[in-house]
Amino acid sequence: MKHKQYSTQTEKIKRITPETLVIGVDIASQKHCARGFNFRKMELGPQLYFQNDLAGFRTFIKWLERLTKANNCLDVIVGMEPTGHYYFALDHYLKEKGIEVVLVNPRDVKRQWEVENNASIKSDPRDAGIIGKLLTDGRYSPSIRYEGVKAELREVIKTRDMLIEEKTRLVNQIHQWLSTYFPEYRQVFKTGIGKWLITLLKEAPTPAEIARLKPDGIHRLMQTCRRSMSRSKVNKLYELARQSIGIQAGVQEAKERLKMLLKRLEQNQDDLRKKEKKIKTLTEQIKEAKLLTDITGIGNLTAATFLTEVGDIDQYETPKQIEKLAGLTLTSKSSGNKKGRGHISKMGRKKLRTVLYHIALTLSSKNDAFKKLYHYYKDIRKKPGTKALIKLCCKLIRVLFTILKKGEPFDPEKMLADIRWPENMTPGYSLS
């Protein structure tokens, strides 16, 4: 069952009617706590502790049914904190039952707890109560559901992100090893851990072993790579290895550790290639993805990440909802004559915000229409570079929302026609 997503807090408050049963659930690893309220924040019935398993979920459903019947409620809304991963199972189970599930910002829960509780007493029932009351104030956001290919794609992207983090750790550990045993390596290998360096480390990891190869041996070794190293670099590498200040103590065990790191890095790179290939295959199965990848500057990975972070576009009524989801809505602090500087709230999905920023950054240099729009914000509206990109992100959201909703391809002329150009300029102007 699809539930409407509300674009304003007023609409969220109106969603809680006198016939609505509001449930706040404090999530834990093994046992959850739930409390029920009406639209006036009055508690309805006793609290409930239930286990994080099927029997516990069934107990929770029966408890909901009793409260609904006893208080003549017509519908139910369940809110919880998205802290950790423990809420996933309950969230999925309730959605399968057709019950609306929403999420409450942990920061709002913490602040409300500080307001309501002078004493430093924190408990599961108190947190469940605070979550339920925040729902009646309209302080919640949708819990996005993923199904089919999008659910699979989301998991593959998570795996890829994990592999990227692992690769960063491995590369840093290899750099640390080299800085200890061959600190001069950066004078030759300036681009990081590439094919040349990996090939060399497999055959001759220490400066002494590199020096024993002599320049001819080093050159022959590098010829096994796709692109051979120049003679000048080979000679420089040989001289650096011959005069290296790297330590020699414990070098045998250190070589074993390096061998292990290189093996893991190669496996990591192989896994990354497989996952990126799978992302491309799955993305091509999503009809809406073609509309995004047809835009110059948007690739399979960025299109897939955007679609899996946003979920089903039909659950949104306005692009403003996606802006809020990404934390791109403007906020500022003003008082009296003092006017605060506006900035984005960042109260949303960091990954969605990041991918939108990366897409906007790419489009501003590779897509002619978005390039003109970026220069319009930057040079005509006098926005600093970062703020111009944020404006471009918001425009991008509106463009993507429209083409996904209508199923129509991107029209650059239509996008530029919405801009209020100066009288002496047209949408096709070019900046020197």
Give an account of the 3D structure.
With 432 residues, the protein is of the alpha/beta class. It has helices spanning 9-15, 54-70, 88-96, 106-116, 124-136, 148-181, 195-203, 207-222, 231-242, 251-284, 287-293, 300-310, 319-326, 350-366, 368-380, 385-406, 412-417, and strands at residues 20-26, 31-37, 48-51, 75-80, 100-103, 141-142, 330-331, 343-344. It has 3 domains: 9-143, 2-Layer Sandwich (Nucleotidyltransferase, domain 5); 151-280, Helix Hairpins; 287-333 and 340-417, no CATH class. Strands 3-2-1-4-5-6 form a 6-stranded mixed sheet. Strand 4 (75-80), helix 3 (88-96) and strand 5 (100-103) form a beta-alpha-beta unit. The two termini are 54 Å apart.
List keywords for this structure.
6-stranded mixed β-sheet, 432 residues, 17 helices, alpha/beta, Helix Hairpins
Uncertain stretches: none
Query: Would you give the CATH topology of the largest domain?
Result: Nucleotidyltransferase, domain 5
Question: Biggest sheet, strands in spatial order?
Answer: 3-2-1-4-5-6
Number of domains: 3
Question: SSE string, helix = H, strand = E?
Answer: HEEEHEHEHHEHHHHHHHHEEHHHH
- Overall pLDDT confidence: 88
Q: What general outline do the C-alpha atoms trace?
A: globular
Biggest sheet descriptor: 6 strands, mixed
Structural class: alpha/beta
CATH architecture group name of the largest domain = 2-Layer Sandwich
Provide the gyration radius in Å.
Answer: 28 Å
User: Proportion of β residues?
Assistant: 5-15%
CATH superfamily of the largest domain: ATPase, nucleotide binding domain
Query: Terminal Cα separation, in Å?
Result: 54 Å
What is the level 1 CATH name of the largest domain? Answer: Alpha Beta
Number of strands: 8
Number of helical elements: 17
